[in-house]
UniProtKB/TrEMBL annotation:
A GO MF label: class I DNA-(apurinic or apyrimidinic site) endonuclease activity
Organism taxonomic ancestry: Bacteria, Bacillati, Actinomycetota, Actinomycetes, Micrococcales
Cross-referenced SUPFAM superfamilies: DNA-glycosylase (SSF48150)
The keyword Transmembrane is assigned to this record: no
Gene of this entry: nth
Reaction(s) this enzyme catalyzes, per UniProt: 2'-deoxyribonucleotide-(2'-deoxyribose 5'-phosphate)-2'-deoxyribonucleotide-DNA = a 3'-end 2'-deoxyribonucleotide-(2,3-dehydro-2,3-deoxyribose 5'-phosphate)-DNA + a 5'-end 5'-phospho-2'-deoxyribonucleoside-DNA + H(+)
Name of this chain's protein: Endonuclease III
HAMAP family: Nth
InterPro entries per UniProt: DNA_glycosylase, Endonuclease3_FeS-loop_motif, HhH-GPD_domain, HhH_base_excis_C, Nth
EC code: 4.2.99.18
Amino acid sequence: MTESGQATAARERARAREIFDALGAAFPDARCELDYSNAWQLLIATVLSAQTTDVRVNQITKELFAHWPDNAALAHADPHDVAQVVRPLGFGARRAEHITTLAAQLAERWDGRVPPDRDALVALKGVGRKTSHVVLSEAFGIPELAVDTHVLRTSRRLGLTTADDPLAVERDLVGQFDRVDLPQLSHRLIFLGRRVCHARNPECARCPVVRLCPSAQAKPDPAGARD
């Protein structure tokens, strides 16, 4: 890398650190908002969270785990019965098929345990890179960046990336932040996206990083606008 390239990279990392710290001050309680008590519950809840909200998933998993409290129980469950429980999330039959098949695969391949390995996780039914990173970071303390729709949107608006592909966004962010901070970076960007930087009508007047946001400077939004 040239001297000018090194200087540019240093400026980008310094700006990224400023954004990270400002978000930490604004959202000191940023965390995974799914309810779980072990790695298996987290895996199932994260798979169910696709195309719905964590609040809704938490309502459903309370009943789901009461009926099928461990992997062995879910692996032998009738998918039709499971579908009745998860139906309020939408796509009940498909979600039920995903998690019962996943449980059966865990039983067959890993003796019912959740493997602390990304390749092993993404080989399971319904598990993608984002879900695997949530589980690795939250359940096993392995620092990975989970890129969901909020992380993708907020990182683009903040000028941390110009990519629109989750893997490319992940690559850009990993290059600007310390690896140990990646899980918390994901939480802070998700909190920002859920609470302030909405997909439509972001509340720029309330944003804790508005002065660092090129999107807000280029196109300020009306104060108090909401989804």
